[in-house]
Amino acid sequence: MACAKVPLDELHVTEPFGPQGKERTLPALHPDRKEERCFLTYKPPPEDGTPVLVEQFLEHAQFISEDLEWLLALPHDKFWCQVVFDESLQRCLDSYLRHAPRGLDPSGLSSSPAVADMQRNIHRFVFMVFLRMATHKESKENFITPAVFAEIIYNNYLFDIPKILDLCVLFGKGNSQLLHKMIENIFTQQPSYYGDLNETLPSIIQVFDIILQKCGIQSENTGNSQPLKLNANKCLTAIAMPEEELADLVLYMCDTCTTIHSFLDTFPEACSTFKQHNFLNRLSSFYEMAVPDLEKAVKKRNFNKSLQEDMWRRISHSRKKMVEIAHLLLQHTCLQPILEGSENMVSYVEDLLQNFTAFLQEKRFLADYDEQFPIADDISLLQQAFPHLYPLLWSSGTLYDDFKRNKRGSILPSFKLLLEKMTLGAVCTLTAGELESLLSSIRDLLPDLGEGFILACLEEYGYNSELVINNILEDKLSPSLDKLDKAMARPVKNELPSVLSTRSNVFDDDEFDVFNRDRLDMSRVWKGRRQGESVCATLHDKQHIEEQRARYQAYQIVVDEIPIANDPSGERDNAFGMDDYDDEYDDTYDTNQIGANDLDEEDELLNRRFSDYAHFRLFMMILCYFDQNEAVKKDHFLQDPAVLRERAEARRAAMQSRKGYRPPPASNVVGGPKGRGQTQEIILDRRRKEANKNRGANHSRRMMADRKRNKGMIPS
């Protein structure tokens, strides 16, 4: 039995084997688990509807239908064993993709309802088989690891680019959403298919070159540097080639265009890969060169009427599909990103306009494209996305109307000029210097015009100074410009204040504020650790004390005697307060000690200040202390460990005494010499040690061993 929720690539199953029915275990994906069944290859229905051929087709198709129905009914593991290891199944599926009738192919489905029903059954069963093959997870119980699934489908060629292209042609109509999920899962789980698609595209482009070569047209994009053969000039044209060869050529072109369109319509993610190979320009060039010759050959040559109608229908179908391919590529590589508002929207606009400009050389293709997908709709989309870039485009509508009326006439040069203006407007990014240069060049010729009016004209005409001057002189300005004042001045832009002037920071106006200070003390600025400094030097730096020394030295000036000399200026007397003498000084109370015998109040004692002399003595002591650097010994940064242990023991003993703890008496288990007997205290100490020694290094091993032995865990 298979285990639930195990991927198929890791699953193993047990099955009976051999005549005796012995069981063996195999991986779920193993060749021996494949059922022996031969799948027939597919053959298309008969075209003429002959009864014998119809009966033969029905019998052959019935076997294929029953085999595919049996395959779809298999469980998950059996289905994948059959798909991976049964080569006849892959041949059957490949034959259907190759020979199944396409949309324009003649078939006998309409002649017999039984044939049509059988074809529908096979068509549905083949699609269901491919759909199941592209699914790596059918349910929570039945799934394959995504990485292993990618290797299985890629290494066993269950899917490749030709198969995927055929699947899109056969099943894209009516199953586009389901088919898109199927192909998306294939490319997501195995990104190598993107590389295969990239390598396949040159072969697809080569198909167009082969058709041109068969028609006798030399393509400019082939880039073939090989020398021409001697009979190269004898190649047939479309009008001169044999009938069968021309029919095959038209069929080849129709099948190629239909396949590419179906693939891009079903899986638009591949458009970016086609864009990398410049596929759009190659397609439009092929359309312009090959389609007119083929149409001319089919019209002028005398073919069988049914064959001629079939060839004309295929050419018309190819023309339509080529135009639709171009629209798909433009839609998904340019228009869709613009509509979604992608980041690089300007680059997508440039790509769109460059493609339209490249179409100008292909007049027939451009006319047919515009008939099926009007370019005005795309231009309208651009106007909505970039209204400031296209004020002059389609304003009157006359140019585009003339273009529609004269698709192959002389209006194409005007349309080319229009697209060139659009491209110029889309990519025009002028610097301030370039804009000033344009303004000065126009004002030199037309000095009466204001700068504001000239700027409006430049914006209107894509910053083309020649076009602006020409329209102003010939009075052909647009109505929006005619309403403006020609002397209009240039609008003044209010300059925003600088960020530095409006900033607010906690470090504003400090000594390192470089935005507000012109000079900085660079001695205060250094990178990394300051050179020449150390912790010891920092601790012994007494510069701040030296700064205070001069302040307190003033207190040691005590003048006992004042020398009096003849000083006519009197400055020396004023220095010692000689001008304060008063002859009327009252010395009545000089001998009395005022307040000497009073009792001092408590507040008075607390609030009494030191005298100046006391201050002086205090700070002199401080200075003397710091000056004695040589005499002061270094403090004991690391104290004696013995002293620390004694202090810790004292603290421990004090704490135990407070808690009422009495330490046990010192034990003595050594005792005296053997043969002389031991005291009772030594015997008790030895017994106490034997009973309590499991509390030490053994970590209760004896107690736990006794416990296990009592419970029967350890045999006695």
Task: Give an account of the 3D structure.
With 716 residues, the chain is mainly α. It contains 30 helices and 2 strands. It has helices at residues 51-72, 76-85, 87-99, 113-133, 146-155, 161-171, 176-189, 192-214, 243-266, 271-276, 279-300, 305-340, 345-359, 363-372, 375-385, 398-405, 411-427, 432-445, 451-460, 465-473, 479-482, 499-502, 535-539, 543-553, 571-575, 602-607, 612-627, 641-659, 680-692, 701-710, and strands at residues 12-17, 22-27. Strands 1-2 form a two-stranded antiparallel sheet. Helix 11 (279-300) packs antiparallel against helix 12 (305-340). The radius of gyration is 53 Å and the shape is flat. The two termini are 49 Å apart. The model is unreliable at 390-400, 406-412 and 605-611 (pLDDT under 50).
The helix count comes to 30
What is the molecular shape? flat
The description of the largest β-sheet is: 2 strands, antiparallel
- Poorly predicted segments: 390-400, 406-412, 605-611
What spatial order of strands do you see in the largest sheet? 1-2
Structural class: mainly alpha
The percentage of residues in β strands lies in under 5%
Number of strands: 2
Ends distance: 49 Å
Helix content: 55-70%
Taking all Cα atoms into account, the compactness measure Rg is: 53 Å
Query: Would you tell me the overall average pLDDT?
Result: 79
